[in-house]
């Protein structure tokens, strides 16, 4: 019972908000959601074209410029090796953003397939897969990445793979309950009666109707993936120096921090923080929207 | 379930490491070409020729008695190496947990009970701190409070209680930073949700004073989700402390795990991974237990999902 | 008006507006009634008619941002202005029984905590004393093993038992006025009658006044001295229960009477009021019932009729006198 015994208006508030202005993909996320999307789009463009638009060679070292501040067209100055900091930030966006993106795509793929398959089949298959995922739950993402760096080799590939596997149980669990909810709806039964094949229903209808939740979860996951991947690179087990990467730069800049030149670490850290804030805010709004739609 | 999970996890850890490239003999001899006799001696001493399952069962059996094998590069007992370092990690995690509980729950309750400016400040703070990863927080805290202001020591562990606390303050805050946001957010949402419950209306209608309503009905009921999120967070800190320990060059098991991974010290990676996974699983089990004791509707034994 | 004229609770021209999506919406409009000590008043209406909101206004449980005008006075004092300790002591004298006991009792605390909380916190009764009194009242509401029940949690009790617990704990502090908001609606049919009988008996024994809110006109007539009918946030008629039932003066009341199944019936089908109920903010400009009334005239749409006194009560219909006596037959639709 609600506190206020008011007759509900014909149109629920969620629907009204969704019908508001905005791009179809972002509808209902409000001004903040759209601003975040712009920030993320910018970050994605830098990730793809960053190395090309960098004003200087990000790998060119000149020790006599070490820790020199703003100088001519070197707007952010130089790092401990005398490399142009702005160029390294731009070039570093590639692994820092595309890396987590790959992780998200992989774990969303694993997670969605497992969620829909277990929700659809149920029974023993569901029990076994859920038990296996429970064991995987026991491995914190960082531990899995460290093990992967030993078993495979330290690098972006091992780290991304490890994170994709580590996140899968979380995604599978959330999406499984969404899939179960969707599975119990009448239209699915109607489609089954019509004799449609299971995988057609799963992909065309179930998967499609779960899309808002999938997108929201993927966005939220991107924030985690970005932080964890950067942390692994910071530890020296991810992207390997001298390649530019924000996580690596926070680590290599640490010697500068201790000597009173924190620019490299702070700039790289700030890049991570800004992208993560944008992702979190957008993810929150997409997730609010998806719960409104599916209820 | 707990035992099964740990068993399967230990097998996964051992099997993965078994597949790791690298030749233990080369590591043992440090690059010199050993004589065939020397190789045979080493192989026997470290049981390098036994089948995989035999080695796993022996390793697990020893692990249960507290013996995690020998670090080949250091020629030293892994359990001893871990024991020397785990104190630092436990202290760091305990300190960070304290900060998370006090600041996170404090901010969350404040935001949940007060609307308007206070609530908005809490939301902005938690949005910001949620986005600052522990290693970035480490760098910022180091730069501001250690290097520029000189209030705290830059690196290392320190001796004696007061000095240790001083040395652990910045790392603990760095470790706690993003978790504070998570706990604050869940606390705020639960407090707000409980405030709107019908049974709170009942208590109000009976003229129970506000602070008692908050304590007996709102906080008591919100304690259920809050305990869960705090527990999960604390469980994950043991793994996350690796990053902070490395940033502050603390001599804990996390930093040691990284060092071992970089130097391919298989036995140490196995040992510490097992410890971290075990702690994670056990803390989560404790959380489930607490959940069941806090919520009379959940009986022990049924899953607390 | 004061307690001296024999009124315990006096509600006059009460209007309430609630903030909905940035605007204020009227949910109650010109509600007036009074209850004397030991008297029972029934408040009848469909959901959305404002009857629960009236009880919440009296109990000072309106949501934040609600705007109240008009007066609610209790024992001569203004209820809407009460604050702090004064408000709490008012609440000690006015107890509320809610519709859904499962939601209105804290699920994580024991029944004993729930029952003795007010006694121990506000009345300074010792724990042992409070427990003894709780067990005594549980026995009165038909729960024999009170000792055991006090140790249990709400989820271990059925809805009917929980509502008895709720009633017992409302009576425990010996209030002078009981607000009962559909106390039996959430229960299954067989327990409804039991619970209602208990509530009625105990109230009479103690001489407590009662505001009984229900959608069931028949039930209100059986339990209450007088009954008031609400429609679209307004009081449309208020009479002694038997008169209201046998000789309704407002076409809406007549519709409600006709909508009840009858045993002595010469009708084969239940009557229904055409159209759907209106809430206060969407009611027509003139008489709120005009668009559903079969006796409507053009003049009904022009101005909102006032609540006019009539021998044993009040009615809000400009054709009331003219239609008198015709409504019982004419109110039924085939």
What is the helix tally of chain B? 12
**Mean pLDDT of chain C, rounded to whole units?**
85
Assembly type: heterotrimer
Q: What's the total count of β strands of chain B? A: 2
Radius of gyration of chain C: 21 Å
| Spatial shape of chain B | elongated
- Give the overall silhouette of chain C: globular
Which strand-content bin applies to the residues of chain C? 15-25%
Main beta sheet of chain B, described?
2 strands, antiparallel
- What is the CATH architecture term of the largest domain in chain C? 3-Layer(aba) Sandwich
Largest sheet strand order of chain C: 6-7-8-3-9-10-12-11
Features:
heterotrimer, A: 295 residues, mainly alpha, MetI-like fold, elongated, disordered N terminus, B: 305 residues, 2 domains, two-stranded antiparallel sheet, 12 helices, 2 strands, 76% helix
Q: How does this structure look, described?
A:
The complex is a heterotrimer of chains A (295), B (305) and C (334). With 295 residues, chain A is mostly helical. Chain A has one domain (3-56, 94-293): MetI-like (MetI-like fold, Orthogonal Bundle), CATH 1.10.3720. Chain A is built from 12 helices and no strands. Chain A has helices at 13-18, 30-53, 85-121, 123-137, 141-151, 156-183, 186-193, 198-209, 211-234, 246-252, 254-258, 263-294. The longest helix of chain A has 37 residues, at 85-121. The radius of gyration of chain A is 23 Å and the shape is elongated. Chain B is mainly alpha-helical and 305 residues long. Helices cover 76% and strands 1% of the residues of chain B. Chain B has helices at residues 2-19, 24-29, 36-45, 52-64, 78-113, 117-130, 134-148, 161-195, 198-205, 210-247, 253-262, 266-294, and strands at 70-71, 76-77. Chain B has a two-stranded antiparallel ribbon with strand order 1-2. The longest helix of chain B has 38 residues, at 210-247. The mean pLDDT of chain B is 86. With 334 residues, chain C is an alpha/beta fold. Chain C folds into 2 domains: 3-224, P-loop containing nucleotide triphosphate hydrolases (Rossmann fold, 3-Layer(aba) Sandwich), CATH 3.40.50; 230-331, no CATH class. Chain C has helices at 51-59, 84-93, 101-104, 111-122, 127-140, 146-151, 159-172, 189-206, 217-223, 241-246, 251-258, 320-323, 327-330; strands spanning 9-20, 23-35, 40-44, 67-74, 77-78, 94-97, 177-181, 209-214, 226-231, 234-240, 308-310, 313-315. In chain C, strand 4 (67-74) and strand 5 form a beta hairpin. The longest helix of chain C has 18 residues, at 189-206. Chain C is globular and about 65 Å long. The model of chain C is unreliable at 329-334 (pLDDT under 50). Chains in contact: A-B, A-C, B-C.
